[in-house]
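[09:14] KT: can someone run the structure on this one? pasting the chain below
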Amino acid sequence: METSGGIRASLAGRYASALFDLARDQRQIEAVSKSLEGLSQALVDSKDFGDLVASPLVSREAAGEAFATLAPQLQLDPITANFLGVLARNGRKNELSNVIRAFRRLAAEHRGEANAEVVTAHPLNDDQLAALKQQLRARAGRDVNIDASIDPNILGGIVVKLGSQRIDASIRTKLNRLASAMKG
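[09:31] RB: done, structure tokens below
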């Protein structure tokens, strides 16, 4: 599969590419995608899980054991469960969020979809996500998957990265432009 050099250039991208290639070869892309979405949600919902992934104090062995214990509870498919063990053994568990993001991009590309990274100050509700998805679809000319994240530092508004395009309609950027204009 042809992927952009940007994905494979990063550490997380190389892991995501390896996971994607394995999932594709075993015709398990959707199962792995579903498991990764569950992991992504667990990172948001569970402070303990987030701490496990982020903490450099958790040894590789302990992380591997914890992931093996959590895999059935999170209903992970065997490929993803094994992959978590690989991340733990290689000391790369802290890359999990980046791997998930890169895998999403690879899966979307495989399905012929575009992927948009969307940053807002507050979570978008389902209606807002649907409207945004429709607008981005019209702009991209194909279906668009949205990878939404929250950054309160933008104060309000939205920042969208769709392919090489970046649309920054955040209040922070508008205030910075105003401050620059006032300086003369």
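[09:33] KT: thanks! The chain has nine helices and four strands.
[09:34] RB: yep, looked fine to me
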